[in-house]
Write a structure and sequence with these properties.
heterodimer; A: 136 residues; 7 helices; 76% helix; B: 74% helix
């Protein structure tokens, strides 16, 4: 279970950094970036996480407020992208499972505490509504 | 363990597991006492075909992962637009096997 999770997270982080790098290079280096959001392709409406890439690119350029206004999940994802791969690699090298235990702890927090789950879902829906009104 | 009851259970629930797991499950269940078997029968197993449907419709938002109890990965999928759309498609193909695996793990916890 632990190794499977670590593999998935490392793969996700690599994909994330690759995608971010590709986007930061901008349109001068390659043709326009396609839409990867299947939901947006299918319905024309943005999903709750649409604009996260744009938000991260702005964050890298130092525009923190603009980044937050584009999609608040951008800064959150930046934090995760900075911490998670490092923690996982350190864990793997030292043959420990501190990240895995913390991950299970967070999962149980969501499973056992309805208020946390409900608040997270509410934030998600609010951000979704904001995304649609912004026309991401 | 009553043989007839066991046969009936195996027939009803073979769709929840991989084919190669069935004989091991049968073996284990035949040695189980009735009190524990009631728990096994009441286990909340997920239908793989149903999960495929869930993955096709809600996979982009990580719903398939949430339903399988993998909350962390569900959140990751949701926050990354379904893993840039790629993870969503990959999970369409993986969800059948993953559901059977999760079902088997659930059953194992109940049997021991």
């Amino acid at each position: 279970m632990k190794n499977r999770l670590y593999r998935i997270l490392i793969l996700l982080s690599l994909a994330g950094y690759g995608w971010l790098g590709w986007n930061i290079m901008g349109e001068s280096a390659h043709p326009a970036v396609p839409t990867v959001c299947l939901f947006k392709e299918a319905t024309g409406l943005p999903c709750p996480s649409c604009g996260t890439t744009r938000s991260l690119v702005l964050l890298v350029q130092g525009q923190v407020v603009a980044s937050f206004m584009t999609n608040p999940f951008g800064p959150l994802l930046a934090l995760l992208l900075a911490i998670v791969p490092l923690w996982v690699v350190v864990d793997a090298v030292r043959k420990k499972d501190s990240f895995y235990r913390r991950y299970i702890w967070v999962e149980n927090l969501f499973i056992q505490n309805r208020w946390i789950t409900a608040s997270a879902a509410a934030i998600m829906v609010l951000n979704w509504i904001w995304n649609i009104t912004k026309g991401m | 363990m009553d043989q007839q009851k066991l046969d009936l259970y195996m027939m009803m629930s073979s769709k929840y597991f991989e084919a190669y797991q069935l004989s091991a499950i049968r073996d284990k269940l035949s040695k189980l006492d009735d009190a524990k078997f009631i728990h096994v029968q009441g286990a909340n197993l997920k239908d793989p075909t149903m999960m495929l449907l869930v993955s096709l419709v809600g996979g982009h938002f990580g719903v398939d992962r949430f339903v399988l109890g993998e909350v962390g990965l569900g959140i990751a999928k949701l926050l990354t637009c379904g893993g840039l759309g790629i993870w969503t498609v990959v999970d369409w193909f993986l969800v059948l096997g993953r559901t059977r695996e999760v079902n088997f793990q659930k059953l194992q916890q109940l049997m021991y």
